[in-house]
Amino acid sequence: MAMSFRNACYHILAPASEAHEYKKRSQLFDVLLIALIIVNVAAMMLETVPGIPAVWQHELHIIEIVSVLIFTVEYLLRLYSSASAPNRPSREQTTPWQKRWAYIKSPMALVDLMAILPFYLSVFVAFDLRILRVFRVLRILKIGRYSRSMQTLVTVLRNESHSLIAAISVLLLFTVIAATCIYYIEHTAQPDVFSSIPASLWWALVTLTTVGYGDAVPVTALGKVFGGLITILGICFYALPAGILSSSYTTQMQLKRDRFKDTVRSVLDDGKLSEHDVHHLEHVRALLDLDEEEAKLIVRLLQHHHKGLDN
After folding, report:
1. What is the mean pLDDT of residues 5-10?
2. Tell me, what's the pLDDT at 76?
3. Which residues are in the Ion transport domain (predicted)?
4. Each residue of 108-148: pLDDT tens digit?
5. 163-188: string of b/e by CB count within 10 Å (b at 16+)?
6. Nearest to 142 by CA among 68, 54, 37
């Protein structure tokens, strides 16, 4: 009985595409939890609007308590049911407690924990913990569990972490160089605006990013020439991380299409698609987060290609 309940919890709490026979209940749970997250984040934002807390303080407090209780039950159920997770050959997760420990260390579990921890710390710890309320915004990251696109973005960030760190390191180095140069160029003319190299970092940052707030601008001829040069270089340098991410994201999406094509080819070996094959392809499509029309087009093209080979 306990094993059956644990397995049911695991599949209902899993993404709907992985819930198997519990798919409808998993979809309902996903929708309800996403709605709760949105309501909770909206309530957190409304608390900062002048006048609203004084009128709706009781209602906002109830939303907070109910949300934390539900998130707590969700976290405990995920921890409990993680023992039913399938074994992965690459990891040692043979016992239920090893699987639970693996879940506790996972990024999404840490997000779940940080979403509820500030509330309990503020209740049980005597001193002021208002700074911990900032962590409440992490609750919006819980939506990432239900978004394949966001999971793809996380994969992209993980795969390109070394390239991104290298690009950001170059940007930081160039920002410091720009701040140092503008300080020595403009300090004599504007000692209040460019009072030090750290103070000049703000100008370097907004100029390199081509934001240009206008609160600090060079007035000397050399400073203006240098500022224009930095703006042009900033367009080039700050495009590096965006280019790395967009290229890797495109690669990840192409890998998903290739995996779906391989699956379609494998089920077309006998020359036709059975009802079981159609359900299997739909399951794979949902897992890969491919557009339904795009998936149908891939299937039709491969079917046409397969018929051409037979002829």
Report:
1. 83
2. 92
3. 27-253
4. 888 888 888 888 877 777 655 556 666 677 777 777 776 66
5. bbeebeeebeebbeebbebbbebbbe
6. 37
Mean pLDDT comparison of 97-106, 185-194, 230-239, highest-scoring range: 185-194
CB atoms within 10 A of CB 298: 18
Question: In three state form, how does the secondary structure of the chain look?
Answer: CHHHHHHHHHHHHCCHHHCHHHHHHHHHHHHHHHHHHHHHHHHHHHCCCCCHHHHHHHHHHHHHHHHHHHHHHHHHHHHHHHHHCCCCCCCCCCCHHHHHHHHHCCHHHHHHHHHHHHHHHHHHCCCCCHHHHHHHHHHHHHHHHHCHHHHHHHHHHHHCHHHHHHHHHHHHHHHHHHHHHHHHHHCCCCCCCCCCHHHHHHHHHHHHCCCCCCCCCCCCHHHHHHHHHHHHHHHHHCHHHHHHHHHHHHHHHHHHHHHHHHHHHHHCCCCCCCHHHHHHHHHHHHHHCCCHHHHHHHHHHHHHHHHHHHC
Residue 38 has a pLDDT of 87
**pTM reported for the whole predicted model:** 0.65
* From the candidate CATH numbers 1.25.40.10, 1.10.3880.10, 3.40.50.970, 1.20.120.350, the one assigned to the domain spanning 2-145: 1.20.120.350
CA distance 198 to 256: 46
Residue pointed to by tokens 């094959």: 277
CATH of domain 161-237: 1.10.287.70
Please name which of 276, 268, 280, 274 lies closest in space to residue 309, comparing C-alpha atoms: 268
Structure tokens that stand for 303 in this block: 């079917």
